[in-house]
Amino acid sequence: MPGWLIDFLWVVVKVTLVIAFVGVNFIFMVWLERKLSAKMQARIGPNRVGPHGSLQLIADALKLFSKEDIKPAMADPKVWALAPVVMFAPALLVFYVLPVGPNAVIGTDLNVGLLYLAAVSSFTLVGIFMAGWGSNSKYSLLGAMRAGAALMAYEIPLVLSILTVAMLAGTLSVQGIVQAQVDRGYYFVFPGIVAFIIYFICVMAELGRGPFDLVEAEHELVMGYQTEYSGMRWGIMLMAEYTNQFTAAAIAAMLFLGGWDGPFLPGWLWLVIKAYALVMVMMWVRWTLPRVRIDQLLDLSWKFLLPVSLLNLVVVAIFLV
Amino acid sequence: MGVLNDVARAAKSIVKGHMVTLREIFKPPMTIRYPDEKPEQPKGSRGMPVLKVNAETGELNCTACGLCARSCPPGCIEVIEETDANGKRMRRPLAYNLDMGKCMVCNLCIEACPFDALEMAANFEISVYDPDNLVFNKDQLATIWKNYDAVRIAGGEKL
User: Fold this and answer.
1) The pLDDT of residue A2 is above 70
2) Could you report the predicted ipTM of this complex, rounded to two decimals?
3) Which residues, including other chains, have CB under 8 Å from residue A75's CB and lie 6 or more apart?
4) Which residues on B lie below 8 Å from A43 (Cβ)?
5) B25 and A36: CB-CB below 8 Å?
């Protein structure tokens, strides 16, 4: 077999595995979220389809597939139809630089991996804006505008907190950061606890989750930018949301909690375990705190997180020098 | 320093809230999966009036005096007394029909009964497809009294 064919097949295998994982992760996370929220509210949650309701999402997906594809008459057809795809693509792109073990990265170990992650994860906003403008609906547009405002406000403290990790590790490569934590024998969550908390808050705000889900605040905006979507188009948006949540947790696990490092179990499993632990914390926060107002959301970022993350960066820099 | 105070207060209350939800996770759910799990009915809960069977003779306590029918506000009870060939009254019901479609579960028949022949059963699952099936005869009423455990929960005490 020629070399290029082997490379090509290898890529096909990897992409298939990633997409399969995204699908399974979607089913698992929706089930986890519904079960966890039910537990917190003294309910049982889904319990009919499959053991403990674990296959509920498959039944839901079948329902979504059988739904009529309703398209708003005044919508921009191309932009409107492309938006869910554009939202889903960056969720997959993040997997490219995820290190799953020593000397094992899903795609390539980019030497600007952190920059790549920050750029790609913000790219979802393009899809959100396409959905907002393309739907030609006031709720969609307002939701997308809020998403834009939130993302701009939270991207800066987010990148500053990631920068702290880059300074601690002395590299921008994601694999290099994990390797640095393994070599030094401590995880960056201990010197970078402030950065970790800031990263966590920012990532929840960017994902539009938890107390920051006013991008789709139903009492004001119906469903935000998702208002005009139904059936499987909406399903893809939901899938992008949950995949983004997983990748955000996985990035946090790699930058602060040592990624694939751990005893006994294989590296990829450690990464998944750490990521799901963080996902569960996100769900915990979401089902505990009430939603904030839009001005409170921006206040928190500009007046509190930004100064604190700058200060944190300076303190870490002084310690390193 | 006001800002720092605010931050400390916010952090404290956020942690407090999270502890509440964390505690709830480990508590059993309130949900009763009704058709699979029966709810625990309180003592004295009223489902439907049923006829008591005498434990010694195996016959109904009812003497067909008709006081229950007379006390019933919606008039859902129909009692016909049995008579022998000579027309002598036998002091037991030939027929005792209770129309649960009319019954408002007021407990007045039970209070009116001087012979302790009626009792309130907790059996509330009497839904049927045909309203005619809501009319219970004396054998059905006695069977419900015998078989339905909830009778023992609700019965015995006149409330």
Assistant:
1) yes
2) 0.71
3) A134, A135, A136, A228
4) 29-31
5) yes
CA of A37 to nearest chain B CA: how many angstroms apart? 9
> Quick one: closest CA in A to B19, which residue?
A288
Q: How far is B2 from chain A (nearest CA, A)?
A: 13
Return the residue of A nearest to B6 by Cα. Answer: A304
How far from B61 is each of A11, B53, B93, B117, B118, CA to CA, in Å?
85, 6, 10, 5, 8
Instruction: Say which amino acid occupies B60.
Output: L
Task: Find the CB nearest A44 among B21, B22, B31.
Answer: B31
Q: What is the pLDDT of residues A162-196, one digit of tens each?
A: 888 888 888 888 888 888 888 887 888 788 888 88
The answer to whether the CB of A166 falls within 8 A of the CB of A177 is: yes
CB of B32 within 8 Å of a chain A CB? The answer is no
Q: In this structure, what are the phi and psi dihedrals at residue B37, rounded to the nearest 5 degrees?
A: -115, 130
All structural domains of chain B = 48-154 (3.30.70.3270)
Task: Please tell me the distance in Å from A195's CA to the nearest CA on chain B.
Answer: 16
Instruction: State pTM to two decimals.
Output: 0.79
Decide: A245 and A209 in contact? Cβ < 8 Å.
Answer: yes
Q: Which pLDDT score is estimated for B16?
A: 92
